[in-house]
Specification:
Distance between the termini: 42 Å
Helix content: 25-40%
Strand content: 35-45%
Number of strands: 9
Structural class: alpha+beta
CATH architecture: Alpha-Beta Complex
Order of helices and strands: EHEEHEEHEHEEE
Radius of gyration: 17 Å
CATH topology: Cyclic Phosphodiesterase, Chain: A
Mean pLDDT: 91
Low-confidence stretches: 187-191
Number of helices: 4
CATH superfamily: Cyclic phosphodiesterase
Length: 191
């Protein structure tokens, strides 16, 4: 089964992200926008995993996530990937202010390692994907559209759980099903 681990978004944030996507839609018509109900903050994408391994992962993640303190992230800024050349992905920025995402991701990577599953490639850049270009877009056009909305600051979002999702590819885009929620541990003390 195709699975990934992610932090779910609040309803308020989903609504704000939908407003941002609606603003950009008219300026960037060649983008396939992510449906609001499927937006999430991916921490570890595993791809196809045997069902027996998924069951062991559930048990490991449930136990290990309790050791990660509840925190928050700042949702601000926008950008695109890749950093050079024509654009393929539009995103909203996520700042791991307290290091909660880094700690949670490391715990999850440790679980994946203990299972002997392949580790994800590349550096982790927390972001929320708003859309993917159907064909590569000129950077100048994308930059104008992104900057046209002024500064973007959507505030803080709590990080108090991790979710194991099953992803099923379909003609209308991927469908995500919650397999299990893993609550994080106690809130970290205020500075």
């Amino acid at each position: 089964m195709r699975v990934f681990l992610a932090v779910p978004l609040t309803q308020s944030l989903l609504e704000q992200l939908e407003q941002e996507a609606a603003r950009l839609r008219s300026e960037l018509p060649d983008v396939r926008w992510v449906r609001p109900g499927t937006l999430h903050l991916t921490l570890v994408f595993l791809g196809e995993v045997a069902e027996a391994n998924v069951e062991v992962l559930r048990s490991l993640a449930e136990s290990e996530c309790r050791g990660v303190a509840v925190g928050h992230v700042a949702i601000a800024g926008r950008g695109c990937f890749p950093e050079r050349g024509r654009v393929r992905v539009l995103w909203v920025g996520v700042e791991d202010v307290q290091g909660t995402l880094a700690a949670l991701r490391q715990v999850l990577l440790d679980c994946v390692h203990r299972l002997g599953l392949p580790q994800p490639d590349g550096t982790f850049h927390p972001h929320l994907t708003l859309g993917r270009a159907r064909r590569a877009l000129p950077r100048a056009m994308v930059r104008r559209a992104l900057e046209g909305g002024g500064a973007l600051d959507l505030g803080d979002m709590p990080v108090n759980e991790c979710v194991l999702f099953r992803s099923t590819l379909a003609s209308g885009g991927a469908r995500h099903e919650v397999l299990q929620r893993f609550p994080l541990g106690e809130a970290s003390p205020c500075p």
